[in-house]
Amino acid sequence: MPAPESLLLDSDLSPHPALDAAWWRQAVVYQVYPRSFADSDGDGLGDIPGVTSRVGYLAELGIDAIWLSPFYPSALADGGYDVDDYRDVAPELGTLTDFDALVGAAHAVGIKIIVDIVPNHSSNRHAWFTEALASAPGSAARARYVFRDGTGPDGSLPPSDWTSHFGGPAWTRLVDADGNPEQWYLHLFAPEQPDFDWSNPEVHEEFLTTLRFWADRGVDGYRVDVAHALAKDLSEPLRSKPETPGELPLDGSDPLFDRDEVHEIYAEWRAVFDEYDPPRTAVAEAFSAPERRALYARPTGLGQAFNFDLLKADFDAAQFREVVEFCLAQAATVGSSSTWVLSNHDVVRHASRYGLPAGTDLDDWLLKDGLETLLDEEQGLRRARAAALFMFALPGSAYLYQGEELGLQEVADLPASVLQDPIWLRTLNTKKGRDGARVPLPWTAEGQTYGFGSGASWLPQPAAWSRTAVDRQAGVEGSTLELYRHALRIRHELQTEETLGWVETGRADVVHFVRPNGWHCVTNFGAEPYALPDGVVRVASAPVEGGRLPGESSAWLTA
Ligand code: NOJ
User: What residues does the Glycosyl hydrolase family 13 catalytic domain cover (predicted)?
Assistant: First the structure.
């Protein structure tokens, strides 16, 4: 077998903590979007007992942890990322007792639980916001959020030009009980998601209490939503956002995002994580200049940060290799491990992305119900399977999104009448949003909702899903589910070190890396078959015949 070209060594890191405490460094984390996973009571919505009922499935899949997207009480203005109460379970999803049962069932089979913490904004039904609305401008109740007088002669213009991620202004004006216009409040997302003011110590205390609440119930870690936006420069006059359509500035000078002070918040959180044994873990969803991402992953902060670089890359050898080199090096600068993501609840599923011509405008593709630009589903799935093996062979943590183990495609043709993502309305129906990735899972080939539950599902499932249902794939050699199961079993055996070396392939469209224990991963991004080096093929995303790796596939080899 060819010798490694180089080894990326993390030699200057402090010794790794005890094995169990460091579980997150190389974990396979499975994201559950609770309302779309499994419905135990037939109301059309997935729920916590539904997740518990499938813990056996997840254990068999071979994951290390479940990340639960928000399951808190919510009016669902943003799919649950509008939280009414951070320390409870939405009644339609279950109870705290159900949650405890899930934690118990998961822990019994060695699966950790990560909950989603949404600290940038609450919902507009949160007790604090209700109190703020009932209180006078300038009151302590209003100081937990960002209320400001309007500008212009009569205050009818918003306090600044900041815009919402979902489209439209980031400010909404209140109207008092007599119908008179009042102050404005800030929401970087939907109007139902008012932003907290993190310069207020009460907000800090509230979230420390929430972190302890879930840690005391046994959760092992947290995924931190919009982690880069908590600290804001709210000094008057409010500054305009700089005209930086690309990356955020490198010096932390943006008024809203990735400010240096945000890390003071996470230092406080770290102190709470370290009150527990083993310490609780966290992963930041932070958007910053790529060079500043690692700041969130410091051991004195959240410890790990998502990078979405692989998710954003085309299925392309040079792009994949570059992403890996950059992300491993970045994570190593702070002693963290890298994360890898191909799909989540916010993006078009990768089995579809990879089946569309590179550069396709995905919003436009969705808007046209997937009809105008033709999706090559077979190619998308072939590439998705290859990318999965590539990702699982990397050092660091892999985050899967529910259904990718089935090779599910995006549901591009959801009719406008069922869309629930606020993006659809806020962009005045010019973007369909993310519902196509959130369609409830198919568990069985038969049945009204393919085994999701006994009632009509909250989003309609495509008929084609009867072919991709879990019971159609389980035990079927070559199915995507069996590929994932097999690969994750081997990964458990081989994922022992945090480094890799690159092996020259002589082909620009073939990437080969090897881990110090002799675990090789070869990915052929091109069309021509590639002659694999000597070794035992442990798993491959497409049949390897005569030692040749077909186009758009990956294989793992050991000696
Ligand atoms: C990121 C979440 O992943 C997304 O679903 C949500 O809309 C925003 N944060 C706002 O909470």
Answer: 31-438
For atom 10 of ligand 1, which residue has the closest CA?
A: 81
Q: Identify which of 67, 188, 189, 344 to mutate to test ligand 1's pocket (most ligand atoms within 8 A of the CB).
A: 189
The residue among 52, 44, 118 whose CA lies nearest residue 439 is 44
CA of 225 to the centre of ligand 1 (A): 6
**Domain segments of the chain as ranges:** 127-186, 481-558
Q: Classify domain 127-186 by CATH number.
A: 3.90.400.10
Q: Which one of 39, 47, 225, 258 is the catalytic residue?
A: 225
Same fold, 127-186 and 481-558: no
226 lines ligand 1 (CB under 6 A): yes
Task: Give me the residue label for tokens 């369909």.
Answer: 432
How far does Cα 249 stand from its chain's mean position? 24
Instruction: Report the C-alpha gap between 282 and 288 in whole angstroms.
Output: 17
pLDDT at 245 over 80: no
Asked if 197 and 258 touch (Cβ cutoff 8 Å), the reply is: no
**Phi-psi label, residue 257: left if phi above 0, alpha if psi -120 to 50, beta otherwise:** beta
Residue 244's alpha-carbon distances to 166, 228, 291, 460, in angstroms, are: 18, 16, 16, 39
Atom of ligand 1 nearest to the CA of 81: 11
For ligand 1, say whether the CB of 346 is within 6 Å of any of its atoms: yes
Asked about 275 being catalytic, the answer comes back as: yes
Is residue 504 part of the annotated active site? The answer reads no
* CB-count exposure of residue 134 (10 Å: 0-12, 13-18, 19+): exposed
81 CA → ligand 1 middle, Å: 6
- Is 481-558 CATH 1.10.630.10? no
pLDDT tens digits, 64-122: 999 999 999 999 999 999 999 999 999 999 999 999 999 999 999 999 999 999 999 99
pLDDT in tens, 422-436: 999 999 999 999 999
Question: How far does the centroid of ligand 1 lie from the alpha carbon of residue 215, in Å?
Answer: 22
Contact by Cβ (8 Å): 485, 58: no
* Apex 78 CA angle, 414 and 196, nearest 5: 165
